[in-house]
């Protein structure tokens, strides 16, 4: 199975400041079809997870453009350009290249 | 908007069985793979099982293989998870999720709690 490792596991950010989360996979997520199957999800307190980013860098419908995904192969990053109060929650990366999907441990974002 | 509504959760004794259902609406159910994802209390997300749109292909996490069975009834727009030989470590909120492509889950249900305890 592919292991997904996120860092940091928690971060505290002042509103208006940037935030960055790293996700590393134990194997390349680049498929032979040319796509890289790396996703980012956010689980806000008391809610179901929601899709933020798919295929490394594509924002899902309705996701603000302050969220930006980047990376390739085994190293990926989610950046929030200016954190807002509504961004609080746990962020998960996930790989979809294998039949058995795996999530990272999650990164908890709180507001200072 | 897409709706996914789980049901069938509850308290069950270790070694027991339970069947979860997920009623889907507002999209062409048979055209999409579906998955179950769970979250133990205070823990992260764990993908549990997936099924193709036709139901012909199924996939399981090693932690549930041989104990859980995923299925679907496309005539009823419903996804199922039959859970047997349940263990305390299966205690979790179980979410059903619509798979737009390769485990990219664009819509999630509200989740249903399963508690395995004597």
Describe this structure in words.
The complex is a heterodimer of chains A (112) and B (118). Chain A is built from no helices and 11 strands. Chain A has strands at residues 4-7, 10-13, 19-25, 38-43, 50-54, 58-59, 67-72, 75-80, 89-95, 102-103, 107-111. The model of chain A has no long low-confidence stretch (mean pLDDT 97). With 118 residues, chain B is mainly beta. In chain B, strands 2, 4, 5, 6, 9, 10 and 11 form a 7-stranded mixed β-sheet that branches. The radius of gyration of chain B is 13 Å and the shape is globular. The mean pLDDT of chain B is 97. The interface between A and B is medium-sized, with 26 and 23 residues.
Total number of helices of chain B: 0
Give me the secondary-structure category of chain B: mainly beta
Average pLDDT rating of chain B? 97
Gyration radius from CA atoms of chain B, angstroms: 13 Å
Tally of DSSP β-strands of chain B: 11
Mean pLDDT of chain A, as a whole number?
A: 97
The span between the termini of chain B is 39 Å
Cα distance spanning the termini of chain A: 36 Å
Query: How large is the share of residues in beta strands of chain B?
Result: over 45%
Largest interface: A-B, 26 and 23 residues
Outline the secondary-structure elements.
The complex is a heterodimer of chains A (112) and B (118).
Chain A: E1 4-7, E2 10-13, E3 19-25, E4 38-43, E5 50-54, E6 58-59, E7 67-72, E8 75-80, E9 89-95, E10 102-103, E11 107-111
Chain B: E1 3-7, E2 10-12, E3 18-25, E4 33-39, E5 45-51, E6 58-60, E7 68-73, E8 78-83, E9 92-101, E10 104-108, E11 112-116
Parallel strand pairs in B: 2-11
Antiparallel strand pairs in B: 1-3, 3-8, 4-5, 4-9, 5-6, 7-8, 9-10, 9-11
